[in-house]
From TrEMBL:
Protein's UniProt name: Prevent-host-death protein
Sequence similarity: Belongs to the phD/YefM antitoxin family.
Lineage: Bacteria, Pseudomonadati, Spirochaetota, Spirochaetia, Leptospirales
Top-level division of the source organism's lineage: Bacteria
InterPro entries with a match to the protein in the record: YefM-like_sf
Organism: Leptospira mtsangambouensis
Amino acid sequence: MKSYAVGELKSHFSEVLEYVKKGEKVAILFGKNKKTIAMIVPINQKTDAKRKIGILDGKVKISFDKEFSISEEEFLNI
């Protein structure tokens, strides 16, 4: 992953965009400490990995009673 300070980013912006087009992430550094404050990432990055939803994904089982029902209004809290 490439990193650029704000001043460098300004002068190398076209180069940065080329890295991003190739699928690379670019960090933006700021301040005297050169702390990472932002990332430029490609928006069309495809991944085959399935996204886990929540930290308990695959660790808990949720089931509902057969008599459980909720209206759409209740679900939307209307």
